[in-house]
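debug: dumping io for the single-chain case to check the tokenizer round-trip. Nothing else runs in this session.
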Amino acid sequence: MQKTVSIPLQFSGRGLHSGEYVTMTVNSAPINYGIKFNRTDCPDDTATIEAAWDQVELSPLCTKLVNYHGISVKTVEHLLAAFAGCGVTNAHITVDGPELPILDGSARPFAFEFVRNGLVQQDAPLKAIRILKEVAYQLGDAWAKLTPSDTLWMSFHIAFDEKVIGVQDKSLCLSNGSFVRELCDSRTFCSNKDVEAMWANGLALGGTLENAVVVDGNEVLSPGGLRHKDEAVRHKMLDALGDLCLAGAPIVGHYVGHCAGHATTNGLLRALFADPSAFDYVEVDAAMNATLPGVNVSLDEFPLVA
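debug: decoded output
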């Protein structure tokens, strides 16, 4: 069944890249509405932005959506990951600026509030995208692929020069609350040596040690250190789940990412939808529903974080 939030939920804070203070409200939405953003600081007839793979404009370090009027909203991936991980399929989001609040740099604040306040099962069938054959996309040394699977699996490989990150690999089945247990609290990360370069290019203006994991060689500069030894690869998986949410329906397949970022995952979705023989839409029955992310999620499954 389709699902939406039960009550309006408000989140406020600075955007990671713009540094602007913004307020965002996640509202319930009717059956078959999908996920849409509305910029309250823009004229009403231009302000709606659909969360869809073909609305993505390539942007460094985040996912940016742009509508046909040129109105955009960026850093949407953590909220979208929370939607996907909690099974939310319909939501109307209002925001009074060009970027969503970064909060603690993870998806946990969003997902926790969704579950704490309750989600509404809507009396309408849910369709999923079932992967029928392998589809791949490569961007430089990075690549990603989708292969057939009975449920959503995700495997990821990263390699960074910083010793505290290094090479990390992780594979997860994202059924039955795995997202909230394993991924949702993992924060965005960066190297200390890259911070000044990002600032010089107008990026990460709202970044602090409180909303990102900043590393320097063997050292973690953010207070409290890492939430997981492999927090970096977990966050990359979180980002990928958020970007896959732009497919417009849950994906039943195995996503494999090799040093993949937002552009790689979006390129993979474009390759998928360019090949109608690679997938089909299936109505979710009880057996498939039991394997989807967001089923049987409770507050007890959220990791405790500092």
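debug: round-trip ok. The chain has seven helices and 21 strands.
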